[in-house]
Amino acid sequence: MAEYDFDVLVIGAGPGGYVAAIRAAQLGLRVACAEARETLGGTCLNVGCIPSKAMLHASEYYDAAANGAMAKMGIKVTPELDLEAMHAQRLDAVKGLTGGIEFLFKKNKVEWLKGRASFVDATTVQVGERTVTAKDIVIATGSSVTPLPGVEVDQKVVVDSTGALELPRVPGHLVVIGGGVIGLEMGSIWRRLGAKVTVIEYLDQILPGFDGDVRKESLKLFKKQGIEFRTGTKVTGVTVSGNKASVTVEPAKGGEAETIEADNVLVAIGRRPNTDGLNLEAAGLTVNQRGQIEIDHDFATKVDGIWAIGDVVPGPMLAHKAEDEGIAVAENIAGHTGIVNHDLIPSVVYTLPEIAGVGLTEEAAKEKGAVKVGKFPMAGNSRAKTNHEPDGFVKIISDAESDRVLGVWIITSVAGTMIAQATQAMEFGATSEDIAYTCHAHPTHSEALKEAAMGVRGKPIHI
What we know:
FAD/NAD(P)-binding domain, Enolase-like, domain 1, single chain, 3 domains, alpha/beta
């Protein structure tokens, strides 16, 4: 029997990779994790989910102080923006969390191999100057920003999501290319801090993949907040002159071109899998047309002993999906049964209000058969009203015959937290009646979920 340096080598220390490494070590395996970045945690902790939430949270406070929300509640303040300090608290959050993973690696005896990994063969990987072998190898290399052809990101005037988090001053006019989650979150931050923000989206609506009602309502709310939208619009070029940019746009279905002047341009049209430099061919692997590594239900690739998870495989590019797959793949490698229900991966947009969904949209559910829908406005929820948060709704889509819940969509300040209850209920096969007859604490935003469930059966109380 061949002697390996490690039982498991995980390539990449993002949410999928570091979780897979720790779980494999907990199960008694000798584990190493290869990571080229100076800190652990991947895109999510370093330049993605975590720092963006730090800026979103801080900008909410500033906006509440600057635009009268606090004054309405009897708190009179005149805020002064200290952007440097706002960036400092963002960096502090990142430092604490990435350092926490390093501590967890040491605690669980996971060896961090510092350097970029490249396959030599199916069991051998070059990491920096070192060559190691492993019985099982997990590819968890994540994703990076999809470039827009012909548009150069200089991280000064034209930025991607990483550069958008680090702008040294509030832009006079920020043009965001892409009306998806990242574009809307970043646009919200800078709009609250005083920038004029214009979002350009190729499709006719923002938030592709979300429920139709949610997309319409969200657009209305963002417009109310002062964000401008150009939907059904194509960007044909971006030119930089000095510290300004000119963005050339035209209608997606054809028409006259025009130019929009901007101080900064954010390219946020999506992400693509990181496979460059892995030398997958040496291991006997190839990627599909979308650049992803194909896997089976257990996260195994077509090569024995090589597994893949997270953004580098098909499915939504979400940190929590990668984490669940990290746990599952480690358990599969250790001979246990690791499963992820890919039909129930919640999505959240961390704007204000938050937007969250799980399961099927109403449009997708209707394609499969007859449905019943319950919808409850947050304006009818006592806690939301008390908190001056009347915007949004909860929507539940159930199978017309079985009453089984097929999808839940929420717009409200704490939608990201509320969606967990919906996801868990659906994981257990809940009907709308199950949710309707579950006691919810009063006064909470979550009562709107109960009322929407009652609405599926035509009997909400508070509307």
